[in-house]
Amino acid sequence: MTSFPRLSTSESEPGDDPNGDNPNRDDPNREEQAHAYCLRLLTVRARTRAELAGKLTQRGYAEAVAQRVLDRLAKVGLVDDEDFAEQWVRSRHLYAGKGKRALAAELRRKGVDNEVITSSLADIDAGAERDRAEQLVRDRLRREKLDDEPGSDLKLKRRLAGMLARRGYSQSMALDVVTVELAGERERRRV
Questions:
Q1: Cα gap 68→31, rounded to integer Å
Q2: Is 145 exposed, middle or buried, given 0-12, 13-18 or 19+ CB atoms closer than 10 A?
Q3: Are 47 and 79 within 8 A, CB to CB?
Q4: What does the H/E/C string look like for 15-69?
Q5: Half-sphere exposure in the Cβ direction for 140 (13 Å, CA)
Q6: pLDDT band, residue 161 (cuts 50/70/90)
Q7: Considering only CA atoms, which of 79, 90, 3 is closest in space to residue 47?
Q8: pTM to 2 decimals?
């Protein structure tokens, strides 16, 4: 096993303590660097407070510096988890076709509080969720070749229900939507 020499006290940075915390990291320059870094991140896309805190931690900023920077950004409205969650839900439901369960999981991974998640998902009622699932299945069915072979419907139903399940729709809704839409597509193609 290779051992590396320990730094002598004369080689360490001024202000370093044995735990590796450097009080000099709490200087105003460091805070401005953290603020500029957060602004660069926010120009790419909106982010949650937890995401920004994680990025600052990865960069080695002290927790006190990160909290001050995030409070400053929140004060001017650049970091707002409620607004982020509402926009995320609206966008991901509309464009990616995500169901409530998938949206809640995504927001949890981004560090959004459960209360905020619940309030942002309140806009999606069961009818809107079902409508979106029906649209997803209809769009997919239009590209499918429907065989008259025995068992082909079962395979197709499994694939379509799996697609909906991966997007966060409940199994019972997925199976019901797939069955109804498949029957409708077969009828449409007969005419």
A1: 8
A2: exposed
A3: yes
A4: CCCCCCCCHHHHCHHHHHHHHHHHHHHHHHCCCCHHHHHHHHHHCCCCHHHHHHH
A5: 19
A6: very high
A7: 79
A8: 0.74
